[in-house]
């Protein structure tokens, strides 16, 4: 089991909120988020939707603290999540003869999601540091990401947002003047 891979759960959940909408506006949105995660499948109700929105806010606060360089706050928030959503690993053997770790399937969907996302972020921070967690720096974008660059230089959630600052800067420049030479010394 690659615990750090569960960090993507945190990114996916936080990024359900965008300036132009909220993918968790109803239960169908929550079901869509969970659709490709059979290990998190289960019946969901409105209380689960509310819990996932609260979890999204908590995870965003962790990314925001890390992005502003407040490692202690990010880790304190994450440790609080780990205490509130403990993980219960167990050994399993199903795709071959080798034993491997799985997380227990007990608890509500939001609790299982929170436990896995928190463990994933904890594993990522333990291996690479909190400065790998980021919030997009494009104006109006609050999407989060995990910086996987070798030199820790990622600043935007996507290529689209990375291009926005240069487009914005170019649109505010004074228009360039083109000087056309006159022919025959005319005026």
Automatic annotation (TrEMBL):
Transmembrane segments: none annotated. Residues 132-173 form the Zinc finger CGNR domain. InterPro entries: ABATE, ABATE_dom_sf, Znf_CGNR. It comes from the Bacteria. This is CGNR zinc finger domain-containing protein. The lineage of its organism: Bacteria, Bacillati, Actinomycetota, Actinomycetes, Streptosporangiales.
């Amino acid at each position: 089991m690659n615990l750090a891979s569960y960090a993507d759960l945190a990114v996916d959940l936080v990024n359900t909120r965008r300036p132009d909408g909220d993918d968790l506006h109803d239960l169908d949105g929550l079901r869509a988020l969970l659709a490709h995660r059979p290990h998190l499948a289960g019946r969901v109700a409105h209380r689960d939707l509310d819990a996932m929105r609260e979890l999204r806010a908590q995870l965003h606060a962790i990314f925001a603290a890390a992005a502003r360089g407040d490692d202690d706050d990010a880790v304190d928030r994450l440790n609080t999540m780990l205490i509130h959503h403990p993980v219960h690993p167990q050994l399993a053997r199903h795709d071959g003869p080798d034993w491997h770790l799985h997380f227990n399937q007990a608890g509500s969907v939001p609790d299982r999601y929170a436990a896995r996302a928190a463990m994933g972020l904890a594993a990522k921070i333990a291996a690479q540091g909190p400065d790998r967690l980021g919030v997009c720096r494009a104006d109006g974008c609050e999407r989060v990401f995990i910086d996987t660059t070798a030199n820790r230089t990622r600043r935007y959630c996507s290529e689209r947002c990375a291009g926005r600052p240069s487009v914005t800067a170019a649109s505010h420049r004074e228009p360039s003047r083109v000087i056309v030479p006159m022919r025959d010394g005319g005026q």
